[in-house]
Write a structure and sequence with these properties.
By secondary structure, the chain is of the alpha/beta class. It has ten helices and eight strands. It has a single domain, classed as Alpha-Beta Barrel (TIM Barrel), CATH 3.20.20. Helix 1 runs parallel beside helix 10 and helix 7 packs parallel to helix 8. The structure holds 1,3-dihydroxyacetonephosphate (13P).
Length: 242
């Protein structure tokens, strides 16, 4: 399996900044083979980024979508529209959507089902909060997020990408140790019983990507802050390439 390196820009980069970032990134990774590189800009930048990368190795993803295909849902975005802009991937259940926007496992399940139906590859995020970790509930929480999120689609889980993002490690500079991350990845792998790619996310940077990617059950990384600078994201893409 090719390592997957995904950059989630979150609510950063206006159209002009997005163009410039992706153009620089393309130059820095144009010779890189054997990596699946996914760029996940804000909705408003998708058409611009799409136009620049369409003929390259870079792939496009969106940060969220609604669970219906169209209709009276003011302010929401249909996965079908995202596909038309060239998106192949969509992030579902990111912790910022769960914890800030109040997304439930039930909503996430509906979105995962719709993405499957319309042919978008979900990057399905799970992960425990600091408090849950301190209470020793990591496996219990992830188990619930997986069983409720994947209800009715367990047999299709190989068509998704999983992302383990411990909430306490996101944007905090605190990375899970490679052993901690690998332990949870093993747990998720055993629980899924299918060959699904599992990414690690949470303060991934050039300094820690090599040791994270050296873990057997870590198939790639989902990068936030460090994907906003072309040099640092390119260095992450190029991990272990001399
Ligand atoms: P940071 O890399 O900024 O911690 O963000 C991780 C993340 O949430 C990616 O989806």
């Amino acid at each position: 399996m090719e390592p997957i390196i995904a950059g989630n820009w979150k609510m950063n980069k206006d159209p002009a900044e997005s163009r410039s970032l992706v153009q620089k990134l393309l130059e820095l990774v144009s010779d890189v083979k054997e990596r699946a590189i996914i760029i996940i800009p804000p909705f408003t930048s998708l058409p611009y980024v799409s136009e620049i990368i369409w003929n390259s190795r870079l792939r496009l993803g969106a940060q969220n979508m609604h669970w219906t295909r169209q209709g009276a849902f003011t302010g929401e975005i249909s996965g079908l529209f995202l596909k038309q802009l060239g998106c192949e991937y969509v992030v579902i259940g990111h912790s910022e959507r769960r914890h800030i926007m109040g997304e439930t496992d039930e909503v996430i399940n509906k979105k995962l089902k719709t993405a499957l139906e319309i042919g978008l590859i979900s990057i399905f995020c799970v992960g425990e909060t600091e408090q849950e970790k301190q209470n020793g509930q990591t496996e219990e929480v992830i188990s619930r997020q997986l069983s409720q999120g994947l209800q009715g689609i367990e047999n299709e889980v190989h068509k998704l990408i999983l992302a383990y993002e411990p909430v306490w490690a996101i944007g905090t500079g605190k990375t899970a140790t490679p052993e901690q991350a690998a332990q949870v990845h093993r747990f998720i792998r055993a629980r899924l019983k299918k060959n699904t790619a599992i990414l690690y996310g949470g303060s991934v940077k050039p300094e820690n990507v090599d040791v994270l990617m050296a873990q057997q059950d870590i198939d790639g990384v989902l990068v936030g802050g460090a994907s906003l600078k072309p040099e640092s994201f390119a260095r992450i893409v190029r991990f272990s390439i001399p």
